[in-house]
Design brief:
Immunoglobulin-like, Pectate Lyase C-like, 8-stranded parallel beta sheet, 7 helices, globular
């Protein structure tokens, strides 16, 4: 009723005062009340919005920051700048094919004229779908790809790339050194299978087998097996081993990885060496490691930058292992943050005793371990941290460390005193560092908080595994449901890579039960693998007391109270219909084409697969 009244008022005003009203609309850019906050870019309801778009709000009276807030899909978002009557937000990379709602609370902004709280509101926009494409290059040792070595493929990647350059590496052991140049951003190196796609080399940084040795000109003066000198490098599904450290289980320094630029991401990858496995770069660099395995014994994660190790496995190679040796400058805000990680022995069943979280290499290190689980093989020194190396830490702390039985590990004896110099009794400098985090402090150290920076970087978008498609077949053709955020699909046969395709169907040969499909996102992240294909027919998966029967035309549900919701999905992943049904009342679906029916009730959920 209110909307109809508003529409009548607007129509009357346009008839009586057309010039004045049209001038006001052109000035304001929307039908919000003059003097209030409204969207400029994107406008309400806009489609095909670029995923790297800025969000701009404006007001005819000018605006300044107010006491309240703005939220994008429920997450707090602050303006990057306010000037000229406009507030500019930089949300970072948004998800493809996703509807976002921007909520501007009343009082989020004040009038620049009289400091009056401005009325907010909410509006929505939908991002564009990704451009369909397969990987830019394929590496295969047997010559079936574009290159036979990873080094070749990386050297051939273009300069100054603004979108991901995807390199797919087939299973094999590649004994070589790989470096990116500083002018090669956005390289995504994706392996077929992390256990069977291995990059390895034997090289140290000194001791007669070093990087400057004439035997290794391809090292280019850098010690690691893999070096990311370029920003926005992504390592996924690959094992990287420095054979010197791993095979000898000894030093000297033998790096598997050096990540020497901003916005480095690693997901489902493996790093193995002994001393100095991973060097993380400089103060201004940000790194994100998710569900990855990192193995070593001596200072095997070291250097600087704001880095989050999220749900990773940290493997110790000896008694008295030291995990980190950070050297953060005074301007680094968060340092190393380990969240929800597991600490294990590199040889399960072999105990590792008297281990340490870390020691202060240089400068003003910061490291936090949050919600860490210790396997039954792992014993930490009561002190937790070594009190001397070359720096004075600000934070060497932890929260909620538990043993393999789930019991809290006592932090009462954790070290807090640190010193520099050559004589502990006559130190050059000393400090007291925080050793225990409160729950509030631990909860605040999220991926977004630590890594978003001024550009709104969201590395967890990069590592998103798209959901498994639904497969079915008819005669000799395989079909699967489309994933809106996919750029292509990987087809597997008997667990091995077969091909990439941008289509959602494929002619198959042989036993159809061996086929699987998974969606690939724009960064090359391989999604969840599908279930086996099903033939034109009916299959159900039920959780709870809900009972659903479908005869090919009509659907009947029982075992619930109130109403149940029925959602139907077409072969392309789009929603084909939604209904509400009562118990034991048949729903006629004879004219609806769908492949999935999801029935949700208070007693459970049933997923029905039926090709129609």
């Amino acid at each position: 009723m209110l909307n109809r009244k508003i529409n009548r008022v607007i129509k009357t005003a346009l008839i009586c005062f057309p010039v004045a009203i049209m001038s006001a609309l052109l000035l304001a850019g929307n039908l919000y009340a003059a003097g209030e906050v409204f969207p400029k870019i994107p406008v309400d309801g806009q489609k095909e919005v670029p995923v790297n778009a800025q969000i701009i709000l404006q007001s005819a009276v000018g605006l300044i920051q107010g006491p309240d807030s703005c939220f994008l899909n429920g997450e707090y978002i602050a303006p990057a700048s306010i000037a000229g009557g406009m507030a500019i937000f930089k949300p970072g990379q948004l998800q493809f094919a996703t509807t976002y709602t921007m909520l501007v609370r009343d009082g989020a902004f004040l009038s620049k004229v009289d400091n009056r709280p401005l009325t907010g509101g909410s509006y929505s926009f939908t991002t564009c779908s990704p451009k369909a494409k397969v990987f830019d290059a394929v590496v295969a040792k047997d010559g079936s790809g574009d290159y036979t070595s990873i080094r070749q493929a990386v050297k051939a990647a273009p300069n100054n790339r603004t979108e991901p350059w995807l390199i797919f590496v087939r299973n094999g052991v590649y004994e070589e050194l790989v470096r990116t140049s500083t002018s090669q951003p956005n390289i995504c190196l994706v392996g077929e299978d992390k256990e069977r796609t291995v990059l390895k080399f034997s090289i140290t940084s000194y001791g007669g087998h070093e990087r400057n040795n004439s035997l290794f000109p391809e090292a280019e003066g850098q010690g690691p097996v893999l070096v990311a000198n370029s920003s926005d490098f992504y390592l996924h599904n690959i094992t990287v081993i420095n054979s010197w450290g791993y095979d000898n289980q000894a030093g000297p320094q033998a790096l598997a990885l050096g990540s020497y630029a901003d916005r480095f991401t690693m997901f489902n990858a493996v790093l193995k060496s002994y001393q100095d496995t991973w060097q993380t770069g400089r103060d201004e660099h940000r790194h994100y490691a998710f569900r990855s395995y990192i193995e070593g014994a001596v200072d095997f994660i070291y250097a600087s930058g704001n880095c989050v190790f999220d749900s990773c496995t940290i493997a110790l190679c000896r008694n008295g292992s030291v995990v980190v040796a950070p050297s953060h400058g005074a301007g680094v805000k968060y340092g190393y943050v380990f969240r929800d990680c597991n600490v294990v022995s590199s040889k399960p069943g072999t105990a590792r005793t008297n281990n340490y979280w870390g020691r202060p290499w240089h400068n003003r290190p910061r490291t936090s371990f949050i919600n860490t689980s210790l396997s039954k093989d792992i014993n930490l020194s009561p002190a937790g941290w070594i009190d001397h190396m070359g720096g004075l830490p600000v934070v060497f702390a932890e929260y909620n460390t538990i043993d393999h039985m789930g019991n809290p590990v006592s932090l009462a004896s954790r070290n807090t005193y640190y010193w520099t110099g050559s004589d502990r009794n006559n130190p050059t400098e000393t400090c007291i560092a925080q050793a225990v985090l409160s729950k509030e402090e631990a909860d605040a150290l999220t991926v977004r908080t630590v890594l978003s920076g001024t550009d709104g970087w969201k590395p967890d978008n990069i590592t998103t595994e798209l959901p498994a498609p639904l497969l079915y077949y008819s005669e000799n053709r395989l079909y699967w449901t489309a994933e809106p955020q996919a750029i292509c699909y990987e087809v597997l046969y008997n667990g091995d890579f077969l091909t990439f395709t941008t289509e959602t169907s494929l002619t198959f040969e042989g036993d159809v039960s061996g086929y699987r499909v998974r969606a690939v996102n724009m960064y090359g992240t391989l999604g969840q693998v599908s279930d086996p294909p099903f033939v034109n027919g009916i299959q159900t998966e039920t959780a709870g007391a809900l009972n659903v029967v479908f005869d090919g035309s009509r659907l009947l549900a029982s075992g619930f109270c109130g109403k149940a919701r029925v959602e139907l999905y077409a072969i392309d992943g789009s929603k084909a219909g939604q209904y509400e049904i009562e118990e034991n009342v048949r729903l006629d679906l004879g004219s609806v084409r769908f492949v999935i029916a999801k029935v949700t009730a208070n007693t459970g959920t049933c997923v029905l697969k039926a090709v129609r």
